[in-house]
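Hey,

The postdoc asked me to send both predictions to you directly instead of through the lab channel. I've kept everything plain text so nothing gets mangled by the mail client. Protein one:
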Amino acid sequence: MTTRFEQAIEKLKKTGVRMTPQRHAILSYLLDTKKHPSVDEIYRALEGKFPSMSVATIYNNLKVFLEAGLVRELTYGDGASRFDAEMSDHYHAICTQCGKIDDFEYPPLLDAEQCAHDKTGFEIQYHRMEVYGICSHCQEAAVH
């Protein structure tokens, strides 16, 4: 059984992308984390192991991963992009106080896509859904 990492490496090889140590580290980090890190968070997590790696290197590699379909870029109102390597159908719950993002599964809203197509004539390519609220940590902090 191949791991998600091995599948990702194979996908990159098929598109002609060479696997550098930095690219390997960024991809491993994204696949191993349950968080939805920003570029700065990825940089901080890897700077001890790769002190010469720049933020620009991370941006450039994320662009490669986006083009290969290995990650999604999540943009929200705070202006900071976050990156998600979980490519299965899922949705996000976002804390309006601390910005934490948790994944949750729900049956794909394919009927919403069909309705959008029927009412607008658009050829729907994808959708995303977020729900907003206050995470349990922030709720607990508010009580104390």
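Protein two:
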Amino acid sequence: MITLLTQHTETTTPAPGDGIEAFFALEGDTFFPGRHAIGPWGADMMNGRTVGGILAHRLEDRHGDPAFQPARLTVDLLRPTGMAPFTVRTTSVREGRRIRIADAELVQVGHVTARASLVLLRRSEQPPGEVWQAADPIGAPLPPAEVPESRHELLMWPFGHGEFDAGNRMSVWEGGARKGAWLRENRALVEGVELTPFVRAALAGDVASPLTGWGTAGLQYINADYTLTLSRLPEGPDIGLQAVSHLSVDGVATGSVTVYDRLGPIGTCSIIALANSAAAFYIPRPTDGAAAG
């Protein structure tokens, strides 16, 4: 009942970060990636969602405030981030009474490989009146409240074509129809640090790329960024995403999803992406040896 978005965590030779069970270990100011941080585009490249997740973690840790809602996180994936040690430096851009802004940069071997900007808004009373809101997009049953133990770092319950894939083999993602998924993180981001609701949402944001870019020939686009907006933090471990749009011309694409938890919609996420047909990514079919937890 469980499937994994990325299947490149098994290697025949020792991988960087062997022995690290979280995505990252932190020693002093240096992060060390574990093997679970490897992404789908190559065994020497870090997963974009873990890059965004670690930037979000550092921004929240250094600049978060319980009175402020993390309302917008933009992650720019400037170049591939390798499976090597790195640091994250943050800067306060604005410390206003109602609006705060902070930036972060991931620095590896002297180069900035990714950056993020976080906007925090002070929470207050809801104003009177009614404003139009889109209908609840959830078009599939909720995932189970309890699931068997799994070695996979990301548990996923995909849905599409208006139905839930009880086998969780992602067969409903085949074809060009609208797609969605429930996600549950099954591993710590940083050793010894509990995942926060904001970081859970940040880790889910990068999945907007395959949700909006996956077509009849698999995933032919690689995203250059993602922007996550949140009206509130998610409650519980499950994050839902459902595709809202995909537009593409001349190998350049945009996509957006609605983000929600079990209680309903909480925000949106949008991406821009480039055609990447030479390295198109496919999720292995069960007959290809794909592991399910």
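Summary for protein two, as requested: The helical segments are 48-63, 197-205, 208-213.

Thanks,
C.
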